[in-house]
Fold this protein.
Amino acid sequence: MAKKFAILGDVHSNLEALNVVLEDCRAQGVTDFLCTGDVIGYNACPRECMEIIRGLGCPVVKGNHDDYVSDFSQNLNNFHPHAAQVIEWTRENLDEESIAWLGNLPLSVTSMGITIVHSTCDHPENFGYVFDNLQAEANFIHQKTPICFHGHTHCPMIYEKSMSGVWRIDPQDMQLQMGRKYFINVGSVGQPRDGDPRATYVTYEPATKTVRFRRLEYDIQAAQERIRAAGLPDRLAERLQFGQ
Ligand code: ZN
């Protein structure tokens, strides 16, 4: 059977969104998974989401939230107060073994000619954000494989490097070209921020070099109710319905 990858990340403890995404993966005939990190944070189902992601048995890279939850020496002061509050709540709601698993995640993985990283290939430990061509250019210098998938901004995007330079391409289904490099942001399963509240992930078929962006409706209200029931900041529930 031809390989078909699902690349997903920034699940952020959103069980409703994750379940819908995995159901779609099955319907799409996905054979392999890659996870771009930030399994936990922001939403109210860290245990359940970790169990599911670990159950996939796929490569997973460490996101900044995974890093903060598992590294008790970190100062949460330079984190947004809402995010910091959820980090502390998440620590209380995960067992030691799960926290250690998050702490042991690698920052970058290359598997079958594809690299995954949470933020960028240049200094992945700094968790820098890529929003423009210049920032993408810095990544490309350190990107060893033609294709790298990432997340972190929660905004799906394609950056392409060709002989003519670095170009930003709006997320769209496309066939990747030989001789070029691609740095593709797969968006966020659990907290999209590009104004579209639907859960996002990407599929990739090596045989045809085709990338597809999937957007899926899920039960946002159920995810919001969980956040409120857990006593987490209301703003985190609200933003889900606006995709911000
Ligand atoms: Zn994130």
Remarks:
- The chain has eight helices and eleven strands.
- The chain has one domain: 5-242.
